[in-house]
Amino acid sequence: MKKIGFLSFGHWTASPQSGTRSASDVLLQSIDLAVAAEQLGADGAYFRVHHFARQLSSPFPLLAAVGARTSRIEIGTGVIDMRYENPLYMAEDAGSADLIAGGRLQLGISRGSPEQVIEGWRYFGYQPQEGETDAEMGRRHALALLDVLRGEGFAAPNPRPMFANPPGLLRIEPYSEGLRERIWWGAASDATAIWAAEQGMNLQSSTLKQDETGEAFHIQQARQIRAYRAAWAKAGHARTPRVSVSRSIFPLMNDTDRAYFGRGGREGDQIGDIDNMRAVFGRSYADVPERLVEQLRGDEAIAEADTLLLTVPNQLGVDYNAHVIESVLTHVAPALGWR
């Protein structure tokens, strides 16, 4: 059994061919797709975060809105770039959104990917400390967030406050119990996956990974997941961790599906350089359900994960993406034992 959700990058463009021609379109359609996915029986609605781009950027208003419109589905990110974040302000926003959603928030965070502008985090007021890389700054921000999400007091109260304080040091409010255990780290390498396990974070592994062995993407990703689980066990955490992988999967059910994706998926891995890293990009899947089942059965990383996020082409609109999600849930997942 697997949890199955969707992951939207939230693209929008003014092109007449796009179903999302403005930021308003993509935000409102993201809420509607989450509602539709919940009605279809999907388990998660996740959103990618990019700055300085015609994509989703500030996640917490969207997460809170989705939380107010739904009642069961998990609501998450994949991922928030921690180089841009004030950890304490983020803890307040996250606590508020999680309380609105009734404890359904699943926050994916990371060092982030290459952005649209050079060192964009500097425009947000952040810069690495002396001798620190921007990746290390992102991990430092992440650790600060994890620390305050424990809910322990750390700030000395004003002896003459405007409003009465509880005794002792004060914590970030609002505080949402259990959110600390629902933080995920997006890891591109084996080393950062192991680091995430040591810190007690869940693992998100996407459709690209640092090419560390030259093997097929799904084999390297499966090895990363096993290394993560071993590090988790070694760290002695009490709870069982969660692991998600992302895939592009399109069952060809009708003429519209064939028109969009009928030439097949990207049927082999691709190699490229991203942010001075040699990366391997996993294949996408597009075929009739029977053949999809056989292809997906051989994906070792999906087998290792407990959560599968379906990357959706959000510019094709709510109705079409709901159709894709339903097709996977109905015609592919049961045959693979995911449902």
UniProtKB/TrEMBL annotation:
GO terms for cellular component: cytosol. GO terms for molecular function: monooxygenase activity; oxidoreductase activity, acting on paired donors, with incorporation or reduction of molecular oxygen. Keywords: Monooxygenase, Oxidoreductase. Residues 9-257 form the Luciferase-like domain. PANTHER family: BLL6902 PROTEIN, LUCIFERASE-LIKE MONOOXYGENASE. This is Alkanesulfonate monooxygenase SsuD/methylene tetrahydromethanopterin reductase-like flavin-dependent oxidoreductase (Luciferase family).
